[in-house]
Structure formats: C-alpha cells, structure tokens
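Run log // design_07
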C-alpha cells in the first residue's frame, strides 16, 4: 500500500508530536560551556536529587556511550553528560593537545559548578571515565555522594601489561595509546599515575560493574592469543583490586557482556545506579 502525500505528512507530524512529548517529559536541555579557551557541548535531562553526571570511555561520544540508559535515568533524577573535545558539538581537537585525567577532572568540575542542582552528585565513570570520576572525587569529596564504575580502568593495568606482554604485543598496545594521543590529545599513560596518587573517602559508596566476557576487539590490532589472554587476565585482576577503593565498595559481574556493558545489559547499570541514588 502506498501512502498518499497528505497521509504521509500527517504521520510524520504525529511522530514529531510524540517525540516532542517524550523530550518535554524529561526536560531535556542542551548547550555549551566554556573551559579555559574552548567550548564543550552538553545535554541534561530530568529533575531530582542527587544529580547524576556521566563520564564516557575514551574514543566515543558520551551520547553514544550512554544512549541505552540516559532517558531512563532522566525519569528518576537529573542526569547530565558532556562531550570532550572532538566529539558532538564540542570544539575540534587543537594541534598539540595533551590532556590527562587532571584536565578532564577540571572540565567535570566546571560542568558540575554550572549544571548541578543538588548539593552532592553521583558520578558514573565508564572505562577511562572511571579515572575521571575517581580523580574528581578525591579532590572534591564534599561534592560526591557515590560513584558507579562501569568496567573502569585501573592505574596498574597498563603498567603490568607492559611488563608481562611480549615486546611485539606491547608495541601494538602502545600503538593504540599513540593513536588516542595523536588524534584526540588523550594522554592515558600519564593519567594512570595521576590517579594512583589519589585516595577516596573511606565511607564513600562505590559500585563496580565488571564485564563477564573477554574483550576480543584488540585482536584486530594484531595482538597474539597469548597477549589477549594477558590483557583479559589482568583486566579481571584489577577489577577485583578496585574493591579496596573504599570500605563501602561492591562489585557485580555483567555475565553476558564484554566491555560495552551499557549497551548489552543496561538493566544492570540502571539497577546499580538507582540503588546508589536511593
């Protein structure tokens, strides 16, 4: 059956009304904020306390990283995400950029100053975003009531990997780190040492969600089977090590997920986050 033009137009208008209604229900707002001499784009939605602020992994937009849970969180409380340089509507990556976790933590601090409507916030740190959540909290403990770490990086993981892998496998891993630095100004290596110098409050509630399936995509970089095993074994070791971050740290395993837990098992993310909020 072929829809005539007036009918098709009516259907499109109806769909727009539905989408607008959903957006209004979550009070979505978007804009930009300045940090130093550059602008970063952001989106916030929902109402309530404590506010939730999201920190994405390396090399992916916050919008894509949290797409599976963002609006669901907005139905419970106010939630905000921002895009790092080179992503979304944020400024492009300038030549020679060299950002570590301390720089990203500064961006988060400014963002929270501008957008938080609650006295304390809950941080969600996904992969490298976990570094940022921990660094910010250690330096601003009065602003954070809890942290959710989603398959988050650990400061000893890469160093141990470098010492354990073959030279050839580590060269391939170093190539990945170099790509992030050369294209995004993202200095992972120095960031791990900055995080290692921080300490979280003993009574801070931290929840960890770790992947249950091995990470396989590094095979595309040509890492050997032995190297992939080292990569995943050390990942599991240091996920468990994060249980010592505070006296109130707990861990759950996303049994059916690789690294992209938010996409594959969003219900686990929402359960842990909502319990942390409550």
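design_07 sequence
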């Amino acid at each position: 059956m072929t829809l005539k033009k007036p009918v098709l137009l009516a259907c499109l208008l109806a769909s727009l009304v539905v989408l607008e209604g959903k957006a209004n229900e979550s009070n979505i707002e978007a804009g930009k904020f300045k940090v130093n001499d550059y602008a970063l784009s952001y989106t916030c939605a929902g109402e309530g306390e404590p506010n939730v602020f999201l920190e994405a992994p390396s090399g992916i937009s916050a919008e894509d990283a949290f797409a599976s849970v963002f609006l669901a969180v907005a139905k419970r409380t106010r939630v905000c995400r921002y895009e790092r340089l080179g992503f979304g509507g944020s400024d492009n990556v300038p030549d020679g950029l060299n950002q570590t976790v301390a720089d990203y933590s500064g961006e988060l601090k400014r963002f929270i100053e501008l957008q938080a409507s609650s006295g304390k916030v809950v941080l969600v740190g996904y992969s490298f975003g976990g570094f940022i959540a921990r660094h910010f909290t250690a330096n601003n403990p009065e602003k954070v009531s809890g942290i959710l770490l989603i398959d988050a990086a650990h400061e000893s993981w890469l160093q141990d990997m470098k010492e354990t892998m073959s030279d050839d496998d580590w060269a391939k891993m170093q190539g990945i780190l170099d790509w992030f630095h050369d294209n995004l100004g993202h200095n992972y290596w120095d960031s791990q040492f900055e995080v290692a110098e921080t300490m979280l409050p003993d009574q801070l509630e931290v929840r960890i969600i770790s992947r249950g399936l091995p990470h396989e995509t590094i095979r595309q970089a040509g890492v050997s089977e032995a190297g992939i095993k080292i990569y995943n074994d050390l990942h599991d070791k240091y996920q468990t090590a994060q249980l010592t971050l505070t006296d109130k740290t707990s861990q759950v395993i996303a049994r059916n997920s690789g690294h992209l837990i938010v996409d594959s098992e969003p219900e686990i993310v929402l359960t842990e986050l909502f319990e942390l909020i409550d």
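The chain has one domain: 26-277.
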